[in-house]
C-alpha cells in the first residue's frame, strides 16, 4: 500500500434519519461496495455524529498544505497533491485550492481523499458501535493511476492529459516516452528500437516544449526538443500534458506542453522506502560478437518528513544497463539507370546494430515549511547517459555505381520491372565495402530549481522561482572501411544478383566476406579521391544552458465572478553551442592497403536478412585499431563544410503576463476558467563563421521581436458530471536553434548541366511559428473512475518556417569551391529556412477511461482506456503552393489499453497505432534527413501480482513484453512500397522485475 497503490470507492453520501422511539438515530452510509446499503445504529451523541459527518464531507478532507488527513491527523498519500501543484511556478500558489473548488461542484475529491474519507468514516462507525467496519473495496495500482488522471483532467480549467505513477518509483510503462505516447492525441517515434521523441496532435517535437517541475529544460538534440530517454521513469511521479495554453504558463509550445513532475515530500505525507529491479532480454540473437542480449536496471526511492512535517525530503535514483539490437536495410536512394529510366537500387547497405544503453539518473527534493504560510523547495535532477553502439554491415555501389567512377555494370537483360522499379536483376564489377563502425553518444544533464511560495491568510500569494539547466553532449562516430583492394583497379570484383520487395532488396554475393586474407583495410569505394579514406571520424560537442528567474503575485478574491488575479514576470536566457570535429581515417605511411591484424579480429558479424548464402563478415573494433596505430586520423579542422556546421545561438526572453481567474455559479452548474495575456519580448543572436574573399572570420547576426499572446479557457461544470470546455489563444513555437546558424556551406553540383554552385545555410533572422488556436471539448465523467470526451481543435498558422526554401545566390565574393574550374558563372542557388506561408491544421479526438466493473458488476476489475485522433493539415509555403506535410504528422493516431486488476493480479495489453508520417532521422554527417515512414501498430503486454498481506506485503512482481508483433520501422520514397528507403527490425523485448516498498 502506498502511492497510487490503493483505490477505495467513493462514499456517495451519509444520511441521518430522525430518532426512533428509543431515541436512537439511524445513519445510512451508501457504498459502492454492495447493492444494498449498510445501516448503522448509533447513539445520540451529537459530537460523534458531527465528527462523522465532517469527515465524510469532501470539502473538509483537505488540509491547509493539500495533504489529506484522517480525524487523528494522520496523513495518507495524496498523489495529486504531491506533484500536481506544489512548488511548480506555472501552477501558482493557489492552484490546489482552485482544483479543490472545481471538484466540489460535483462533490468529488482526489483519489487519496476518497481513501481518507472511507477510512475516517469507517473508523468513526467502529468507534460508535464497537464493531469493526466491513473492509472497503481495495484495487491495485493501474486503476488508481487512471483515477488520478481522471481527477487531473476533470478539475483543471485547461484541456490536459496526464499519467501518474501506479506506485512510487513505477510508471505504467518501461519508459516515460512510452507512457506519454499512450495519451490521447499523442504518439512517439522510435529510434534504435525505443521511443524517444513525442508528437502532439500531428505536430513534430519542434512544436512542443518539455518542462521539469514547470521549468524549461535543456536538451541533448541540436534543437529544443527533449529526448525522453534522458529521464528515468522511476524518478518521475507524474506527467502532465497541456493541450491549451494559459497566460501564466511560461515556456509553452504551439502544439502542447509536457511537464514532468517529481514528488513533493511534505504533500506526500508519510515515509516510504522503495527499491526495485528488473532484467531485460531481447529475443533476437547477437548480431555482433561484442554485443549482449541481457540487461538490467535498478532503482530506489526514499521519501520522509521531519520537524513535525515542516521539513520533507525525497530522493530517487535509477541505473540502467540494457541492450537494444536491430537489423537494418538502407537502399541508399534509387538511380534511374534501369531500363527505360526505371528506378534501380542505388547504394544499399545491410547491417546489424547493437546498442548498449547505460544511464544513471537521480532526482531530489527538499521542502521546508517553517510556518504554514511559507514554503521553500529545492529541486535537483541529474542524468549521466551513455549510448554505445556497434554498427557493422556491407555497402554495395550498385545503381549509383554504374559508370566510370565505381565501374559497376548492370545487365538490363536480367531486369524485371514492376511499377517503375527494377525488382530483380544482376550487377557486375561490384566491389563491396565492409564497414565496422562504432558510435559513442554521451550526455550529462543537470537541472536545479529553487521555489519560494508565500500563501497569505488575506488572499495575497507570491512566489519567487530560480532555475538552471545544463546539458553537455558528445556524439562520437567512427567509421572504418575494408574491401578487397583500393578502387576497382586493385580489388577483386564480383557479380551480385538481387530481388526487391516491400521489405527492401535481397542480394546473392559470391565472395567469402569472412576471409581475412581477402579483405583488407583500405578505401574500396575511392571516397577520398587522392586520399586513402579508410573511414571517417566525427565528434560533435554540444553545450546547452538555460537560466530562469520568475516572480509572481496573486490576489484571491472571494464571492466574485473574478475569483483571482495573477501578475508575473519571467526572464530566460538560453545559449546553445555546437562544435564539430571531423577527420579522414587513413592508413599510416601512405599505405594503400593494410591487412587487418589477427589479434584485433573479434570473429564475424551477422550481415542480416538482406544477404543470401554468405550472411556474415569480419568483425573488429575500430577504436582498437586507432589506439594501436593501425589507423590514423587526418583532421579536417579548416574544411569549410565542417566549419559551416558550427553554431552558437543565444536567446534572451522576457515574459510578462496578467491572468484573471473566473468562478461564477450558474444555477446548479458553475463556470470556471481564466483569461489573460502574455507579452513576450525576444532577442536572438547567432554567431558563426563567414567565408569571405580574404578568409574566414566570425560574425554575429540576429534580431528582436515582440509577441502578444492572449488566451482564454472556460469550463462549464454541471452537477451531473458533464464538463463543457472552450479555449482560444494565440500561440507560438520558436525557430529551431540549429536553423538560426549563420554559416554557409556550398559546393559544385556536377550533376547539373552546366554545373552550378549549390549551398545551404541557416537564418539568424527567423521569427517564430505563429498560430491562432480554438479548442472545444465535451466531457462526461463517472465520478472519479472514468470519463468519455470528444475534443475538437483548429489552428490557423499565420507564419510558418519552411526549412528548404531555394533562391538564387551569387557566390562571387566567397572562396572558390572544389571543382570551380567546371563553372561558367558564380551565380548559384542557396537553400535556407525562411518565414513563409502558413495554413490550417484541425482535427478531432475521442478519448476515455471506462471501468467496466461500474457498468457490469460481474466484470469488476476490468477496464479500458485510450483514445483516437484524426488530424488534417493544409500547410502551404505560399497560397498557390501544394500542401506540405509537417515532420511527424500522422493523420490517424490511436492507442488503447485493456486491463484487469483485482485480488492482487494485474493484467494489461496495449496497442499503439499511427498512420504514415514524415520521419525525422539522422543522415550522413549527422545532418537531418526526412523520410516517409509507414504506419505502425505496436503491441505490448504485462502480467503482475501485488502482495497485499503477510510477510511479502509491499512486494510487486511483473513480466512485460514489448513490441510483441515485432513491428518494423520502415520508410519509403515516392509513396511506392517497392522503393524502400529504410527497413529496421527491432525484435521483441521481455522484462521481468520486482519492486518492494516499506
TrEMBL record:
PROSITE patterns: TONB_DEPENDENT_REC_3 (PS52016). Residues 155-257 form the TonB-dependent receptor plug domain. SUPFAM superfamilies: Porins (SSF56935). Residues 1-25, 64-102 are annotated as: Disordered. Residues 506-964 form the TonB-dependent receptor-like beta-barrel domain. It is found in: Cell outer membrane. GO terms for cellular component: cell outer membrane. It comes from the Bacteria. Coiled coil: none annotated. Its main location: membrane. The keyword Endoplasmic reticulum does not apply. Keywords: Cell outer membrane, Membrane, TonB box, Transmembrane, Transmembrane beta strand, Transport. Belongs to the TonB-dependent receptor family. NCBIfam families: TonB-Xanth-Caul. This is Iron complex outermembrane recepter protein. The lineage of its organism: Bacteria, Pseudomonadati, Pseudomonadota, Alphaproteobacteria, Sphingomonadales.
